[in-house]
Amino acid sequence: DIDDVGHKYYLELELEDVLDKDRTVNCTAEVLYHLGSKNSAPDVQVTVQGELRSTEEADKEFYNWIRSLEKELVAENIPDSHGNVPPELEPIHLLAWVASGYVIWQNSTENTKFHLAQVKHVKQVKRSDEDLQFDFVVLLHEMVSQEVLPWQVTLLWHPQRGARVSQS
């Protein structure tokens, strides 16, 4: 629909359960791209049909593991050239997916279709507060133009406060 506010799209999606790859949950989304406003992300309203499982325990385990490392975590090429993500880096891949989602919403138009292709590089940055900080270089595949674009994104994360993108 096109109205005086912008372009509205209705999507039906199937979300894969993060904890159980064989389980999916259906949802619908209404996305409104504002007319003439290239600097603001679209408004998104999502309705989940079913129940998403809690990741609270897995989040705590990952948080405690990262906090216990003597050296900051550094990793490259997630997934590798064969599409494999080491199990211990799956939470990093998911956080990169969240961070890239922010970048995608901020930079999408009706004529783009971005997809996270790879975490080229990630480095944990030690902080004095309780947040975990990860500096990512993600490769976004723009499906329409077939370009692969690198983006630098800093993500702060805490299991109780969730993820926040501090710069991109």
From TrEMBL:
Keyword terms: Protease inhibitor, Repeat
| GO terms assigned for molecular function | metalloendopeptidase inhibitor activity
One Pfam family this chain carries? LXN
Looking at the UniProt record for this protein, which Gene Ontology cellular component terms does it annotate, in alphabetical order? Answer: extracellular space
Keyword Repeat included in the entry's annotation: yes
User: Does Repeat appear among the keywords?
Assistant: yes
Q: Which domain of life is it from?
A: Eukaryota
Annotated Cystatin LXN-type domain residues: 1-57, 74-168
What the record says about family reads: Belongs to the protease inhibitor I47 (latexin) family.
Under which name does UniProt file this protein?
LXN protein
In which organism is this protein found?
A: Vidua macroura (Pin-tailed whydah)
What lineage, starting at the top, does this entry show? Eukaryota, Metazoa, Chordata, Craniata, Vertebrata
